[in-house]
Specification:
The complex is a heterodimer of chains A (705) and B (88). Chain A is α/β, with parallel strands linked by helices and 705 residues long. Chain A folds into 4 domains: 162 residues, Rossmann fold (3-Layer(aba) Sandwich); 74 residues, Helix Hairpins, CATH 1.10.287.1770; 212 residues, no CATH class; 177 residues, no CATH class. Chain A contains 31 helices and 10 strands. Chain A has a 7-stranded mixed sheet with strand order 2-3-4-1-5-6-8, sandwiched between helices. A two-stranded antiparallel sheet of chain A has the order 7-9. In chain A, strand 2 and strand 3 form a beta hairpin. Chain B has 88 residues and is of the alpha+beta class. The termini of chain B are far apart. Classes of the chains: A alpha/beta (705), B alpha+beta (88). The interface between A and B is large, with 41 and 37 residues.
Chain lengths: 705, 88
């Protein structure tokens, strides 16, 4: 038995259910990477079918295959350059005409093709009846039927795909006829192009159509590869001019019109609609959800619900994780003899990484909620509702989605800006994203509000910080849009998918994809930072100080005295360590903000690694050993050193200053230069300083100090 | 005397999509915009001759339309560049 390897590429519109089909085929055997050189995600999965080992590539969701957007270019280049054995066009059968537009272009690419009528259950409930044989004949490709979210028809789809991939039956050509005028220009160009061996990778007819569409990338390819490029481009120019005269419109518009004309012709023949179902359920839901008066309150309520669920449901598992790391620390401490190694493992690594993993339940729940909003179709409506408001700050509704994700973790949020086509919009959205108070800042708030404010007031105090972040994000976005990245606001077009009940599998996969980024951060950057912070706060050694204290501890009359001496020693050691010295160095700059204590400087310095670390560092600095945000001892120690106003200023500073190192690294990757991450570090710190100064001095004036 | 300007006369038959009230069924005549946007819209089914149904829209803010069975949201700026004709 010999296993044959095959590659299947899935192409389709956004919202065609492509991802659900991909998930149904591959299950958990998935791998997410990037296409070389660009930030478009490359999703691959694997499955076995009969004797075949199949690699399934989920191409980016696109409406077309022009060179105009990165996603479309990536999809097209994959098909042309990597030559998958078969391309499956996933079509939303309930929205067939629009979905077939992409299929016509795949037909023109002359690739082995299967059409998958997905969501065929929805289509038939909407009253559509398809004559599959006739459609298949008209479109020149076999048709399979699936219901992606139920996993129905997947085996049949694979069978048809494998059949197409392994047969060498040539495909029917020239399916779309563009009308006499265009066809005449196509054949002129085709003649020239077919004579070019350097371009034989592409079908000549397809190249001709692309040249008539003024496709920039294909023009460049022709110039690079063909010796006869001048004549070809000259002919293309002439053809375009002629067509423009004939039709009084851009040739690409006329070509699109012809494709749609062909499609509606095919549908008229082979699709029947038995019910006149003009206003479906989605329309009815939309009349409420996007209502001018109700839309915003519903949106605010849903956001409130998301945060309630995230934090209420997250509490118990947080407790378990905390207990686990406490236990793990004890076990390691018992196994490894006291000394540097033990200290590094227990105080550095376990405490550091554990302190971050504690938030995993919150983060996963938030991502689960966001996945639900996305998969159900609500997120697109939220963009619709928020568009007017976002417009006022020079962005549009789509920018709002990354902002929302930012409340969970800025890293996936910054990656989510990839959906914004315009570079300026995308940059502004990235730049202000760190001002969305992410989950990592929450433990700092919990610790400080717990120490300084009544439980009743704590909620409002924390809420005010979130609001402050949002308000400043709005102001900064406006400023950036006006002075840093000026330009006309970009047109906003977005499809609103029908409402759907999300599938559990889809939700879990989406949650996990984002949650994994957070976990990776804990496993890599935070691990490294924990070690660095540990080194900085342990060295240089204070031998005389230690000997001095050890003698006193041994001579101590009772255990309580010995323990307090030990704490004193730890605190003094830390003050003289590198971390302590850095804290002392920063302190003068923070004095006008009422945060002149060197320990705060040290904690903030450590927080650059990850903001959660501020809490554990404060614990060590106030010489209390193991601490978390619920710790009674740390609260008391803080009360001695701060007051409510200073605590609030401290939280404001933590909210705004430098995003964590992982976020900086992601900004570097997504913007492809060091300029923007450095700018973010600089401006957020300046903003934190100014905002804290205003709050502190304002508070003093009001007599709150 | 504070007279109000009379609304400017529009070419007979065509209006910007942004003026069409919710519920209106109109036919796309042309798109008066940059090449990139025209391409994107035509890929989404907004080609001349297509029937559009305005689902939601107000004096300000985005529009929601139905085109070829899908719901599409258009920013106000775009809706002003799309010329339509037909029943209001």
């Amino acid at each position: 038995m010999s296993d044959k390897k095959l590659t299947i590429a899935l192409a389709g519109n956004p919202n065609s259910g492509k991802t659900t089909v991909f998930n149904a085929i591959t299950g958990a055997r998935q791998h997410v990477g990037n296409y070389p050189g660009v930030t478009v995600e490359r999703k691959e999965g694997y499955c076995k079918f009969n004797d075949h080992e199949i690699t399934v590539v989920d191409l980016p969701g696109t409406y077309s295959l022009t060179a105009h957007s990165l996603d479309e270019l990536v999809a097209r280049n994959f098909i042309v350059e990597e030559r998958p054995d078969v391309v499956v066009a996933i079509l939303d059968a309930s929205n067939l005409e629009r979905n077939l537009y992409l299929a016509t272009q795949l037909i023109e690419l002359e690739v082995p093709l299967v059409l998958d009528f997905n969501m065929s259950d929805v289509a038939s409930s909407m009253g559509y009846r398809f004559d599959y044989d006739q459609l298949s004949a008209l479109l020149g490709a076999p048709i399979a039927r699936t219901v992606g979210h139920k996993g129905e028809g997947v085996d049949d789809l694979l069978r048809v795909a494998v059949e197409v991939a392994t047969s060498d039956r040539p495909r029917d050509e020239h399916i779309v006829h563009y009308g006499r005028d265009i066809e005449r220009e196509i054949s002129k160009l085709e003649g020239l192009l077919a004579a070019e061996p350097s371009l034989e990778q592409y079908p000549a007819r397809w190249l001709a159509v692309k040249l008539l569409e003024s496709d920039q990338e294909i023009r460049e390819k022709v110039v690079q590869r063909s010796a006869n490029w001048e004549q070809i481009l000259h002919q293309a120019e002439a053809s375009i001019n002629r067509l423009q005269k004939v039709y009084d419109d851009l040739p690409e518009v006329v070509i699109a019109e012809a494709r749609y004309g062909f499609i509606s012709g095919a549908c008229e023949e082979a699709v029947r609609s038995t019910v006149e179902a003009r206003h479906d359920l989605s329309d009815r839901i939309d009349t409420i959800i996007t209502n001018r008066l109700l839309g915003l309150p519903i949106f605010v309520f849903l956001m409130w619900l998301v945060f309630q669920l995230t934090f209420k449901l997250g509490e118990p598992p947080m407790g378990w994780i905390e207990t686990f790391f406490g236990w793990a620390g004890e076990q390691v401490a018992a196994l490894v003899p006291a000394g540097y190694i033990q200290s590094l493992l227990v105080d550095g690594i376990i405490a550091g990484v554990g302190g971050v993993l504690v938030f995993l339940p919150n983060i996963l729940l938030l991502f689960l909620a966001i996945a639900f909003l996305e998969d159900s179709g609500y997120m697109a409506r939220a963009a619709f509702i928020m568009d007017r408001i976002m417009h006022k700050i020079g962005l549009h509704g789509k920018s709002f989605i990354p902002m929302l994700i930012g409340f969970g973790c800025n890293i996936p949020a910054i990656m989510a800006t990839r959906t914004l086509e315009n570079r300026r919009d995308r940059l502004v959205t990235i730049l202000v994203n760190p001002l969305m108070s992410c989950g990592a800042r929450l433990p700092v708030y919990i610790l400080l509000t717990g120490a300084f404010f009544s439980p009743k007031a704590a909620g409002n105090i924390i809420f005010s910080l979130y609001m402050l972040g949002i308000a400043l994000a709005i102001i900064m976005a406006k400023l950036f849009r006006k002075y840093l990245l000026p330009g006309p606001s970009t047109p906003f077009v977005m499809e609103l998918p029908p409402y759907r009940l999300p599938t559990l599998r889809g939700l879990v996969i989406h949650m996990w994809e984002r949650g994994w980024l957070y976990l990776k951060k804990a496993g890599t950057i935070i691990l490294a930072i924990s070690v660095i912070i540990w080194v900085l706060s342990t060295f240089p050694r204070q031998t005389t100080l230690e000997q001095n204290y050890e003698a006193r501890i041994e001579a101590a009359a009772d255990e309580t005295l010995a323990a307090s001496l030990e704490e004193e020693l730890a605190s003094k050691q830390l003050e003289r360590s590198y971390a302590g010295r850095i804290g002392h160095l920063i302190a003068p700059a923070l004095r006008p903000l009422g945060l002149g204590d060197w320990r705060i400087g040290t904690a903030l310095f450590a927080g650059f690694g990850a903001k959660e670390v501020v809490v554990s560092t404060m614990g060590t600095l106030y010489s209390l050993g193991e601490t978390d945000e619920e710790s009674e001892g740390l609260r008391n120690a803080l009360k001695e050193n701060l007051n409510p106003l200073k605590a609030y200023v401290f939280m404001v500073f933590v909210l705004l200053y430098v995003p964590c190192m992982a976020a900086v690294a992601v900004i570097r990757r997504e913007t492809n230069s060091w300029r923007w991450p450095l700018f973010v570090v600089f401006y957020t710190t300046a903003l934190a300083w100014v905002a804290s100064l205003v709050v502190y001095q304002g508070g003093l004036l009001l007599g709150l100090g | 005397m504070s007279g109000r300007m009379s609304p400017r006369a529009r070419p007979v038959g065509t209006t910007p999509l942004s003026m069409a009230p919710p519920g209106a069924l109109v036919t796309l005549v042309g798109i008066n915009a940059g090449r990139g946007l025209v391409r994107r819209l035509s890929a989404m089914g907004l080609v001349p001759g297509t029937q559009l149904e305005v689902l939601r829209g107000n004096v300000a803010g985005p529009l929601m339309i139905r085109v070829k069975g899908s719901r599409i949201m258009l920013g106000r700026g775009i809706a002003m560049k799309i010329l339509v004709a037909g029943r209001g």
